[in-house]
Amino acid sequence: MPIRQLPEDLINRIAAGEVVERPASVVKELVENAIDAGASRIVVTTAAGGKGLIRIEDDGHGMDRADLVLSVERHATSKLSEDELDDIRTLGFRGEALASIGSVAELSIASRTAQADSGLRLEVRNGVRSGPVPQAMNRGTIVEVKNLFAKVPARLKFLKSDRAEAGAITDVVKRLAMANPAVHFVLNGSDRTASNWPAVSGAGALQARLGQVIGDDFARNAVTLASSRHGVVVAGLAGLPTYTRANSLSQFYFVNGRSVRDKVLVGAIRAAYADYTFRDRFPVVALYIAVDPGEVDVNVHPAKAELRFRDAGAVRSAVIRAIGEALTAAGFKASATVAEDVLGAFTAPAYESAEAPAFRAPQQASAWGGSSMRAAPDNGWASPRLDGFTEPSARVEAEPSPAFAEYPLGTARAQMFDNFIIAQNGEGLLLVDQHAAHERLVYERFKAQLASGPVPSQAQLIPLVIELPEEDCARLEEAAPELERFGLYLERFGPRAIAVRETPALLGNSDIDGLVRDVADGLAEWDSIAAVSDRMEAIIARMACHGSVRSGRRLRVDEMNALLRDMEATPHSGQCIHGRPTYVELKQKDIERLFGRSR
After folding, report:
1. Homologous superfamily of the 332-346+368-599 domain (CATH)
2. Nearest of 289, 293, 231 to residue 262 by alpha carbon
3. DSSP letter, residue 581
4. Residue 512, CB half-sphere, CA atoms under 13 Å: how many?
5. Has this prediction a pTM greater than 0.70?
6. Hey, which end of the chain has fewer CB within 10 Å, N or C?
7. Tens digit of each residue's pLDDT (9 = 90 or more) over 268-281
């Protein structure tokens, strides 16, 4: 078959296949044009998921006759001051959007500049232009796209339902609104619930806009990012590790005001939260990156959804450091949603009659045994005598000691089920998971010791010999030199046994047998001895788990309070190394609400 030149309309439809993937792609291109035109208010209206109608109205600079006619031509743009692609400072620059849209839909553009007496309207129907003609309107531009892909049925049949396409449009407009807090966005139409995000300004503009779009719940349970490193400015909000989602749809990335999908940023978020979240949970993040436009290539994707950093390592490092510093500054803080989940789990008892229910007198329990809940001894306040809850040194007055108000996590009042510490601070009640909390404390101490050199070890008076499968013994023997960095000294003891000569001093008298078996399982999972150094966090996480206070261990009141004070002084102690919360705080007003009381 001989080579031939494709007709112009076919060239445009091919280009449309790259730029106009679905109705949401049209909305993205048109709204970006409005933002580049200096609009302060943008109204987006859709019907039939954007397949029937997309209407974008803005109050930007507008276009005169010459610009309006040229705007629908291929590769015509006002957004490149010079013929260079290494310094892009606008959202749109390729000059294909309007021409591509006009080749697969009915397109009309009406625009007016501030100096013009009236506006002008131009139409493009499946690639054929007509106009412009006069039209009465305010300053700005109105773009209407009707019957998208009506003449390209092959593309139309691959679109999703009206509801799904409307949802994709909503997501696009949300991201554009998040990137431009100074612009008022309105999203409405017959296929959706209307959304209205007024413009915000000032120091808290970004947080206010994120609260509008994502919800105030996110803003309350996130830390503020503000960091600059190696020419990379990182801003935004990062959710607390206990505030997560089941997927990554609530992770938003913006580079120089452009919403993008980038593997470097995704990997940086994953690395920054590696110590704090479950493997199948995803933090909520709105990440804003500002770099020199010459250091990023935004021309690697037709829809400008992807980009390439000149120094990806510097960007990744800046993001990880910014999030790490913010989470460290948050200290032991946990998300408020944890307490809300607890409150939601409580239900008020429903009585079948108005008569008071009969109560049996509780059996008195011994002071330190035979019960699921016990009070901390000599804690300075009196409590009623309940089944399984004893107070060895009750006072006449029922007023608690004021000492609890001095600490954010309060002071210990009791231990419940031999695992949960009940504490009281100046505002309410706290339930602390002693194992999860101590696990985080040990983990952070391990990291600090490892950062300054090999972890101190303590010799076993008699080496502990552990019998294991031969393949596990071989893996441990090969990894032994690396494991010594963690304070764990192992030797092969026959074909099916390992001798443990020294253990990390930080672990004390922990379950060494379980620890060695757990490390062996990890080596088998990673399938590479060389991965031990790269899996430092995983190694010390396994050690911390075995070296922490176990569930079922009864603690003295001084031990409980010491744990609370350590939590207050340790970063990230609001969640364990698996991402679970270490404590729940119930405010006094929340507890009163459970019982129908109000102040």
Report:
1. MutL, C-terminal domain, regulatory subdomain (3.30.1370.100)
2. 289
3. B
4. 26
5. no
6. N
7. 998 888 777 766 77
